[in-house]
Design brief:
- The chain is of the alpha/beta class and 269 residues long.
- It has twelve helices and seven strands.
- Helix 4 packs across helix 5 and helix 8 crosses helix 12.
- The longest helix has 15 residues.
- The chain is globular, with a radius of gyration of 18 Å.
- It binds S-adenosylmethionine (SAM).
């Protein structure tokens, strides 16, 4: 396990509730398209890796797929079980998937590859557990960042938050460009064929307090920076968040934040 993975384990520990209130609703948007890209139809054997509170797995099960859901974090599996009490859940961390080769017809990972220390090894494992002719489909956030993602760094900087060079970063040799070319390169590097990538763009509508509950509860890059930060800095960041989001506030009191994601798929040879 890399230092990055070790850090990820700690940053997700016990955070299912804060994630469910904030980011899970954002990450739900691409779920139907991810399942379409993976060919997740009735009767398909599908593994949803990094299932979180189980949005994608539950949708696949509703389509009639036989779903195995995997997550590295216990609180996520507990949360996901609520929607699918009879579902199959396995606690495991990429790049180690405890399944024989070619176990599944499809593998999906919705915003998970961006949380692993060795994305190439993770992608190779997703491909390994899918039978020839089956599909792997993944999403990641793009770079340059869309306005929704950029907001957190802007609020932190405007509040005078200190730089944190101590936080682990992906080793340069393990990193990949968060662009269609970078993501398709990652899938091709895992031996996948007929690789495609599309950019999905949408406006995420959310209550401002629910959205803030993510970083306030330790989720995402800002959540990371705020864990253990002095209360006074947290308050300043919140004020900057309110100021910066004012232009996105609709008359119904909800924010409408423009965002986008990369969705890539490939076929196992
Ligand atoms: C951004 S959330 C996405 C959750 C879910 N796929 C969704 O669409 O809401 C990332 C999830 O990946 C899990 N995770 C992070 N690193 C992982 C790893 N190496 N192996 C498996 N799961 C991991 C986290 O615990 C978390 O539940």
């Amino acid at each position: 396990m890399t230092t990055f993975d070790d850090h990820e384990r700690r940053r997700w520990a016990g955070r299912a509730h804060a994630y469910a209130r904030s980011y899970a609703r954002l990450c739900a948007y691409p779920a139907p398209m991810l399942l379409d890209a993976a060919g997740a139809r009735s009767g398909a054997r599908l593994v949803d890796v990094g299932t979180g509170p189980g949005t994608v797995g539950a949708l696949a099960a509703a389509r009639g797929a036989t779903v195995t859901a995997v997550d590295a974090e216990a609180s996520m599996i507990t949360a996901a079980r609520v929607a699918r009490p009879d579902g199959r859940f396995v606690r495991a961390a990429l790049p180690d998937l405890p399944f024989p080769d070619a176990t599944f017809d499809a593998a999906v990972a919705n915003f998970v590859i961006n949380h692993v220390g060795d994305p190439r090894a993770a992608m190779a494992q997703l491909a390994r557990v899918v039978r020839p002719g089956g599909h792997v489909a993944v999403t990641v956030w793009p770079y340059p960042q869309p306005p929704l993602q950029r907001l957190w760094g802007q609020a932190y900087a405007a509040a005078g938050g200190p730089l944190r060079p101590d936080l682990p970063r992906l080793a340069a040799e393990n990193d990949f460009d968060r662009t269609p070319a970078g993501l398709t390169g990652l899938l091709r590097g895992a031996g996948l064929a007929a690789v495609r990538c599309e950019t999905l763009s949408w406006v995420h509508r959310t209550d401002p307090d629910d959205w803030w509950a993510g970083p306030a509860g330790g989720i995402g890059q800002l959540g990371h920076l705020l864990v253990g930060a002095p209360a006074e800095l947290r308050e300043r960041v919140r004020k900057e968040y309110d100021r910066l989001t004012a232009r996105y506030l609709d008359t119904d009191g909800l924010l409408g934040l423009p965002t986008s994601a990369l969705l890539a798929t490939g076929r196992v040879e």
